[in-house]
């Protein structure tokens, strides 16, 4: 396979101007995060590769287990499906298949892993955690405009930040996850739309989960 590399790491992000925040209605927040058609222009013979990095001070073994690459490829049939595969140390594991026509399933994978990780680490009901995250997805939010350097070019980015447990009466029982922050950065210049997705608790000291777009691999 021929690899197309993009200079697209969090450490390389550069803001040429101050970020601007604009209010966004709840419905529009959801539509932006779960944007449809984000895979329509991707060649069906290619793969999108993301890097998942997990840190978990309460369950270090879980962080080691869950850190690796996530590859998104396509399967032709009656409908084109997007296949997600976890790759670590030469081992591959299928995560699921999703209709490619809907959009990039990485966003769903990201939120579900956060829910699972929090329930596994802090305890509590995964249904309660999932519901609070779902509520945050349809709450009014601010979209933060920024810039990033990709292949030596400055491109526009949009970032949405959410605090699903802000004001929750059970915060003291969440073992450091009460201030969980979710942040998604998107750009038209990134294949598949999502530049990065990040969750962190206690400013990352208790838990962090990042999914960074790494590259587009295209078959010869």
Question: What does the model show?
Answer:
This protein is globular. Helix 3 crosses helix 4. Helix content is 20%, strand content 41%. It is built from four helices and eleven strands; from the N terminus they run E-E-H-E-H-E-E-E-H-H-E-E-E-E-E. It is of the alpha+beta class and 220 residues long. The model is unreliable at 1-18 (pLDDT under 50). Strands 1, 2, 3, 4, 5, 6, 7, 8, 9, 10 and 11 form an eleven-stranded antiparallel β-sheet that branches. It has helices spanning 26-33, 60-66, 106-122, 126-137, and strands at 2-5, 20-24, 46-56, 68-75, 81-88, 91-99, 141-150, 153-162, 181-186, 194-201, 207-218.
Weakly predicted, low-confidence segments: 1-18
**Total number of helices:** 4
- Helix coverage percent of residues? 10-25%
Q: Shape, please?
A: globular
Instruction: Note the quaternary state here.
Output: single chain
For the termini, the CA-CA separation is: 6 Å
- State which percent range the strand residues make up: 35-45%
Radius of gyration: 17 Å
The count of DSSP E runs of length 2 or more, i.e. the number of strands, is 11
The helix/strand series, from N terminus to C terminus, equals EEHEHEEEHHEEEEE
**Overall mean pLDDT:** 89
How does the major sheet shape up?
Answer: 11 strands, antiparallel
Determine the structural class based on helices, strands and strand pairing. Answer: alpha+beta
């Amino acid at each position: 396979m021929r690899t197309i590399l993009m200079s697209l790491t969090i450490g390389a992000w550069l803001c040429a101007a101050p970020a601007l925040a604009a209010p966004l209605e709840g419905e529009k927040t959801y539509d932006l995060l779960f944007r449809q058609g984000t895979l329509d222009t991707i060649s069906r013979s290619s793969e999108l590769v993301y890097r998942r990095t997990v840190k978990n001070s309460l369950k270090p073994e879980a962080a080691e287990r869950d850190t690796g690459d996530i590859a998104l490829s396509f399967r032709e049939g009656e409908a084109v499906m997007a296949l997600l595969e976890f790759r670590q140390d030469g081992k591959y594991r299928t995560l699921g298949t999703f209709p490619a026509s809907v959009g990039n399933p990485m966003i769903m994978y990201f939120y579900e892993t956060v829910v699972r990780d929090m329930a596994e680490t802090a305890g509590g009901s995964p249904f309660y955690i999932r519901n609070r995250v779902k509520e945050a997805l349809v709450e009014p939010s601010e979209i933060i405009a920024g810039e990033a350097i990709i292949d030596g070019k400055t491109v526009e980015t949009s970032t949405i930040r959410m605090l699903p447990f802000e004001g929750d009466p059970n915060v003291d029982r969440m073992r450091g996850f009460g201030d969980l922050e979710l942040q998604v950065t998107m750009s038209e210049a990134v294949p598949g739309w999502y530049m990065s997705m990040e969750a962190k608790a206690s400013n990352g000291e208790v838990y962090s989960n990042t999914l960074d777009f790494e590259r587009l691999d295209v078959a010869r």
